[in-house]
Amino acid sequence: MAGATPTAPTRRARTLWAAGASTFAATIMLVVGVFQFIEGLIAVVNGNDFLVKTPNYLFTFNATAWGWFHMIIGLCAAVAGGFIFTGNVLARSVGVALAVLSALANFLWLPYYPLWGIVIIALDVLVIWGLTSVDLSDL
Predict the structure, then answer these.
(1) Which of 30, 42, 44, 89 could potentially form a cystine with 81 if both were Cys, beta carbons 3.0 to 4.6 Å apart?
(2) What does pTM read for this prediction?
(3) What is the DSSP string of the chain?
(4) Domain ranges of the chain
């Protein structure tokens, strides 16, 4: 039947799926926040001597400034990940925005620290998927 409402077990399964995806995204967001903070801390402590030198890269930045930027994004992402556990729609929206910002920052960071940047981008994509793949009416 077209337009029929889902049965109780189907509705319950969708609700469990939505809660699981949200919990997954919140957990990964906490991990990404901690990783991002550590990435920034390494850049601040070690400066330009530790990072890969890429000649003629379009986006050249001071490693210490990048480090502080990554530390701030990481802290905000970890806090947002904690608030996503509450099921707040605003926290989910902020989580998606921070994951996008983190992915963009790590894309620009690739020439300086390639492997770490790729790992964080992949985790950010998982966070965005987890926060946007569920129907909010199921929560």
Answers:
(1) 30
(2) 0.74
(3) -TTPPPPHHHHHHHHHHHHHHHHHHHHHHHHHHHHHHHHHHHHHHHGGGTSPP-TT-SS---HHHHHHHHHHHHHHHHHHHHHHTTT-HHHHHHHHHHHHHHHHHHHHHTTTSHHHHHHHHHHHHHHHHHHHSS-GGG-
(4) 32-133
